Automatic annotation (TrEMBL):
Keywords: Transit peptide. Coiled coil: none annotated. It comes from Brevundimonas faecalis. The keyword Cell division does not apply. Residues 194-259 form the CAF17 C-terminal domain. InterPro entries: CAF17_C, TrmE/GcvT-like, YgfZ/GCV_T_CS, YgfZ/GcvT. This is Folate-binding protein YgfZ.
Length: 263
Protein backbone atom coordinates (compact mmCIF):
# COMPACT_ATOMS: atom_id res chain seq x y z
CA UNK A 1 0.00 0.00 0.00
CA UNK A 2 2.37 2.76 -1.17
CA UNK A 3 1.58 6.32 -0.01
CA UNK A 4 3.15 9.40 -1.56
CA UNK A 5 2.89 13.15 -1.16
CA UNK A 6 2.18 15.01 -4.41
CA UNK A 7 4.14 18.24 -4.34
CA UNK A 8 2.89 18.86 -7.87
CA UNK A 9 -0.60 19.48 -6.46
CA UNK A 10 -1.95 22.32 -4.31
CA UNK A 11 -5.27 23.34 -2.77
CA UNK A 12 -7.81 26.15 -3.05
CA UNK A 13 -10.81 26.56 -0.77
CA UNK A 14 -13.98 28.14 -2.13
CA UNK A 15 -16.49 29.12 0.56
CA UNK A 16 -19.56 31.28 0.99
CA UNK A 17 -23.32 31.02 0.41
CA UNK A 18 -22.87 30.96 -3.37
CA UNK A 19 -19.83 28.63 -3.48
CA UNK A 20 -21.58 25.59 -4.97
CA UNK A 21 -23.73 27.33 -7.63
CA UNK A 22 -20.73 29.52 -8.51
CA UNK A 23 -18.51 26.50 -9.26
CA UNK A 24 -21.37 24.45 -10.70
CA UNK A 25 -21.88 27.02 -13.46
CA UNK A 26 -18.17 27.05 -14.35
CA UNK A 27 -16.89 23.49 -14.12
CA UNK A 28 -17.49 20.29 -16.11
CA UNK A 29 -18.58 18.48 -12.95
CA UNK A 30 -21.81 18.61 -10.91
CA UNK A 31 -20.99 20.60 -7.77
CA UNK A 32 -24.52 21.10 -6.45
CA UNK A 33 -24.85 17.42 -5.44
CA UNK A 34 -21.29 17.05 -4.12
CA UNK A 35 -21.67 15.70 -0.57
CA UNK A 36 -19.29 16.66 2.25
CA UNK A 37 -16.34 14.27 2.17
CA UNK A 38 -17.05 13.19 -1.43
CA UNK A 39 -14.51 13.57 -4.24
CA UNK A 40 -15.09 14.27 -7.93
CA UNK A 41 -12.87 14.93 -10.94
CA UNK A 42 -13.46 17.76 -13.38
CA UNK A 43 -12.04 20.74 -15.25
CA UNK A 44 -12.37 24.41 -16.04
CA UNK A 45 -12.43 24.94 -19.79
CA UNK A 46 -11.99 27.94 -22.04
CA UNK A 47 -15.13 29.26 -23.77
CA UNK A 48 -14.18 27.34 -26.98
CA UNK A 49 -14.08 24.15 -24.87
CA UNK A 50 -10.36 23.52 -24.43
CA UNK A 51 -8.68 22.46 -21.19
CA UNK A 52 -7.37 25.20 -18.92
CA UNK A 53 -7.31 23.52 -15.49
CA UNK A 54 -7.86 19.93 -14.36
CA UNK A 55 -9.00 19.59 -10.76
CA UNK A 56 -10.47 17.39 -8.08
CA UNK A 57 -13.37 18.69 -6.01
CA UNK A 58 -13.64 17.82 -2.31
CA UNK A 59 -17.02 18.48 -0.76
CA UNK A 60 -17.18 20.40 2.53
CA UNK A 61 -20.11 21.56 4.63
CA UNK A 62 -19.57 25.20 3.74
CA UNK A 63 -17.92 24.96 0.36
CA UNK A 64 -15.50 23.05 -1.82
CA UNK A 65 -11.75 22.39 -1.75
CA UNK A 66 -10.11 22.24 -5.18
CA UNK A 67 -7.06 19.99 -5.71
CA UNK A 68 -5.16 21.57 -8.62
CA UNK A 69 -1.73 21.64 -10.25
CA UNK A 70 0.60 23.58 -7.94
CA UNK A 71 2.18 25.48 -10.82
CA UNK A 72 -1.27 26.69 -11.90
CA UNK A 73 -2.89 27.39 -8.53
CA UNK A 74 -2.32 31.15 -8.40
CA UNK A 75 -3.55 31.54 -11.97
CA UNK A 76 -6.71 29.60 -11.12
CA UNK A 77 -7.31 31.76 -8.03
CA UNK A 78 -7.10 34.82 -10.27
CA UNK A 79 -9.41 33.26 -12.87
CA UNK A 80 -12.04 32.31 -10.27
CA UNK A 81 -11.83 35.76 -8.70
CA UNK A 82 -12.46 37.27 -12.13
CA UNK A 83 -15.58 35.13 -12.59
CA UNK A 84 -16.86 35.89 -9.09
CA UNK A 85 -18.55 39.20 -9.95
CA UNK A 86 -21.45 39.57 -7.47
CA UNK A 87 -21.36 35.98 -6.19
CA UNK A 88 -20.97 35.76 -2.41
CA UNK A 89 -17.89 33.54 -2.39
CA UNK A 90 -14.35 33.65 -1.07
CA UNK A 91 -11.49 32.02 -2.98
CA UNK A 92 -8.24 31.39 -1.11
CA UNK A 93 -5.23 29.06 -1.37
CA UNK A 94 -4.63 26.80 1.64
CA UNK A 95 -1.27 25.29 2.64
CA UNK A 96 -2.28 21.64 3.15
CA UNK A 97 -0.72 18.88 1.07
CA UNK A 98 -2.21 16.22 -1.24
CA UNK A 99 -1.45 12.53 -0.71
CA UNK A 100 -2.17 9.44 -2.80
CA UNK A 101 -2.22 5.74 -1.98
CA UNK A 102 -2.50 2.92 -4.48
CA UNK A 103 -3.04 -0.84 -4.66
CA UNK A 104 -5.50 -0.13 -1.84
CA UNK A 105 -7.19 2.97 -0.39
CA UNK A 106 -6.38 2.99 3.35
CA UNK A 107 -8.49 4.60 6.03
CA UNK A 108 -8.76 8.34 5.53
CA UNK A 109 -8.33 8.11 1.75
CA UNK A 110 -11.22 8.61 -0.67
CA UNK A 111 -11.27 6.41 -3.81
CA UNK A 112 -9.99 8.18 -6.90
CA UNK A 113 -13.13 8.99 -8.94
CA UNK A 114 -11.35 8.41 -12.25
CA UNK A 115 -10.43 4.74 -11.94
CA UNK A 116 -10.44 2.25 -9.02
CA UNK A 117 -6.91 1.07 -9.88
CA UNK A 118 -5.61 4.59 -9.16
CA UNK A 119 -6.25 3.99 -5.44
CA UNK A 120 -7.24 6.90 -3.23
CA UNK A 121 -6.51 10.53 -2.38
CA UNK A 122 -6.58 12.64 0.74
CA UNK A 123 -5.46 16.08 1.80
CA UNK A 124 -4.23 17.44 5.10
CA UNK A 125 -1.16 18.65 6.93
CA UNK A 126 0.42 15.29 7.81
CA UNK A 127 0.48 11.75 6.46
CA UNK A 128 3.17 9.09 6.76
CA UNK A 129 4.60 8.23 3.34
CA UNK A 130 6.69 5.35 2.03
CA UNK A 131 6.85 6.18 -1.68
CA UNK A 132 7.74 9.10 -3.93
CA UNK A 133 5.77 11.13 -6.40
CA UNK A 134 7.87 9.51 -9.14
CA UNK A 135 6.56 6.11 -7.97
CA UNK A 136 3.02 7.43 -8.24
CA UNK A 137 3.60 8.81 -11.74
CA UNK A 138 5.01 5.46 -12.84
CA UNK A 139 1.87 3.75 -11.50
CA UNK A 140 -0.35 6.24 -13.34
CA UNK A 141 1.54 5.65 -16.58
CA UNK A 142 1.28 1.89 -16.14
CA UNK A 143 -2.52 2.32 -16.27
CA UNK A 144 -2.36 4.56 -19.32
CA UNK A 145 -4.02 7.46 -17.47
CA UNK A 146 -3.03 10.95 -18.63
CA UNK A 147 -1.97 13.71 -16.27
CA UNK A 148 -3.96 16.58 -17.80
CA UNK A 149 -1.53 19.26 -16.63
CA UNK A 150 1.60 17.47 -17.87
CA UNK A 151 0.15 15.76 -20.92
CA UNK A 152 -1.99 18.44 -22.49
CA UNK A 153 -1.15 21.52 -24.49
CA UNK A 154 -2.60 24.44 -22.53
CA UNK A 155 -5.76 25.81 -24.16
CA UNK A 156 -5.25 23.54 -27.19
CA UNK A 157 -6.46 20.13 -26.00
CA UNK A 158 -10.13 19.20 -25.70
CA UNK A 159 -11.11 17.33 -22.50
CA UNK A 160 -12.42 14.34 -24.45
CA UNK A 161 -9.02 14.04 -26.17
CA UNK A 162 -7.57 13.76 -22.63
CA UNK A 163 -10.14 11.01 -21.83
CA UNK A 164 -12.18 13.08 -19.37
CA UNK A 165 -15.36 11.46 -20.68
CA UNK A 166 -13.99 7.99 -19.83
CA UNK A 167 -12.51 9.02 -16.46
CA UNK A 168 -15.65 10.56 -14.96
CA UNK A 169 -14.45 14.11 -15.54
CA UNK A 170 -17.52 15.46 -17.35
CA UNK A 171 -21.15 15.38 -16.22
CA UNK A 172 -23.09 15.48 -19.49
CA UNK A 173 -26.43 15.69 -17.64
CA UNK A 174 -25.80 18.84 -15.60
CA UNK A 175 -26.65 22.36 -16.65
CA UNK A 176 -24.39 24.75 -18.49
CA UNK A 177 -20.67 25.09 -17.88
CA UNK A 178 -17.99 27.03 -19.69
CA UNK A 179 -17.15 25.25 -22.96
CA UNK A 180 -20.19 22.95 -22.75
CA UNK A 181 -21.41 23.48 -26.31
CA UNK A 182 -18.22 22.20 -27.95
CA UNK A 183 -17.79 19.38 -25.41
CA UNK A 184 -21.35 18.11 -25.80
CA UNK A 185 -21.17 18.31 -29.58
CA UNK A 186 -18.02 16.19 -29.67
CA UNK A 187 -19.70 13.58 -27.48
CA UNK A 188 -22.94 13.52 -29.49
CA UNK A 189 -21.12 13.01 -32.77
CA UNK A 190 -19.51 9.91 -31.27
CA UNK A 191 -16.34 9.96 -33.36
CA UNK A 192 -13.25 11.23 -31.57
CA UNK A 193 -10.32 11.83 -33.91
CA UNK A 194 -7.60 11.93 -31.22
CA UNK A 195 -7.18 10.37 -27.77
CA UNK A 196 -4.43 10.10 -25.22
CA UNK A 197 -3.29 6.55 -24.64
CA UNK A 198 -0.19 4.64 -23.59
CA UNK A 199 2.62 3.69 -25.94
CA UNK A 200 5.38 1.21 -25.12
CA UNK A 201 8.96 1.01 -26.39
CA UNK A 202 12.44 -0.12 -25.38
CA UNK A 203 14.67 2.31 -23.52
CA UNK A 204 14.21 5.85 -22.23
CA UNK A 205 11.15 7.91 -23.18
CA UNK A 206 11.29 10.12 -26.26
CA UNK A 207 11.38 13.87 -25.81
CA UNK A 208 8.03 15.51 -25.09
CA UNK A 209 6.58 16.58 -28.41
CA UNK A 210 8.33 13.86 -30.42
CA UNK A 211 6.32 12.76 -33.43
CA UNK A 212 4.80 9.28 -33.63
CA UNK A 213 4.84 8.08 -37.23
CA UNK A 214 2.81 5.40 -38.96
CA UNK A 215 5.08 4.74 -41.88
CA UNK A 216 5.61 8.26 -43.19
CA UNK A 217 2.33 9.62 -41.82
CA UNK A 218 2.02 11.55 -38.57
CA UNK A 219 0.09 9.41 -36.09
CA UNK A 220 0.55 11.22 -32.79
CA UNK A 221 2.67 13.20 -30.37
CA UNK A 222 4.52 11.99 -27.27
CA UNK A 223 3.68 13.60 -23.92
CA UNK A 224 5.12 12.49 -20.55
CA UNK A 225 6.92 9.19 -20.09
CA UNK A 226 9.23 6.90 -18.11
CA UNK A 227 11.52 4.07 -19.11
CA UNK A 228 9.64 1.91 -21.60
CA UNK A 229 6.30 3.76 -21.50
CA UNK A 230 4.70 7.12 -22.26
CA UNK A 231 1.42 8.87 -22.90
CA UNK A 232 0.82 10.05 -26.46
CA UNK A 233 -1.98 11.96 -28.14
CA UNK A 234 -2.79 9.56 -30.96
CA UNK A 235 -4.90 9.74 -34.10
CA UNK A 236 -7.52 7.02 -33.81
CA UNK A 237 -7.36 6.23 -37.54
CA UNK A 238 -3.61 5.60 -37.53
CA UNK A 239 -3.13 3.16 -34.65
CA UNK A 240 -2.63 0.08 -36.82
CA UNK A 241 0.62 -0.44 -38.67
CA UNK A 242 4.32 0.03 -38.00
CA UNK A 243 4.61 2.87 -35.50
CA UNK A 244 7.92 4.59 -34.76
CA UNK A 245 9.28 7.51 -32.73
CA UNK A 246 12.72 8.86 -33.61
CA UNK A 247 13.29 5.70 -35.65
CA UNK A 248 12.44 3.40 -32.71
CA UNK A 249 9.49 1.00 -32.95
CA UNK A 250 6.63 1.71 -30.54
CA UNK A 251 3.31 0.03 -29.94
CA UNK A 252 0.02 1.28 -28.58
CA UNK A 253 -1.06 -0.38 -25.34
CA UNK A 254 -4.83 -0.22 -25.00
CA UNK A 255 -5.98 0.28 -21.39
CA UNK A 256 -9.01 -1.84 -20.51
CA UNK A 257 -10.91 1.31 -19.50
CA UNK A 258 -10.83 2.62 -23.11
CA UNK A 259 -13.45 0.53 -24.96
CA UNK A 260 -12.07 -0.31 -28.41
CA UNK A 261 -10.58 3.18 -28.67
CA UNK A 262 -14.02 4.62 -29.35
CA UNK A 263 -15.20 8.11 -28.37
Amino acid sequence: MPIARLDSRALIRVTGPDARPFLHNLLTQDVETLAPGALRFGALLSPPGRLLFDLFLWGEENGVVLDVAAERRDVLVQRLSMYRLRSDVEVMPIPDAVFVAWNEAPEGFVPDPRLPALGGRRWGDQCETDATEADWQAHRLSLGVPDPTADTLLDKTYPIEADFDLLNGIDFHKGCFIGQETTSRMKRRGTIKNRMTAIAFDGPPPERGAEVLNGELRAGEVMTGVEGRAIALMRMDRLDGDLTVDGRPVRVEKPDWIPDFQG
